[in-house]
What does this fold into?
Amino acid sequence: MSAALESNNIGPLRFETRRRMDGREYVVNAADLAPAGDWQLRVEARRGQFELFTETVSVPIEEGER
It folds into this structure.
């Protein structure tokens, strides 16, 4: 996973994911998304050797939400 705040020329910042114990979800620990702004999160998931799925979502972070 990576995050970028283009309005402040930040990123992409790369974050390592880990699989939760149930095996169906992944989490990122301690992703500090500061300063406030409209962050773009890019998630890449690989299935097998040749399939790569990519999704980018916008996440608004307001001042004081951290």
Notes: The chain has one domain: 2-61. The radius of gyration is 13 Å.
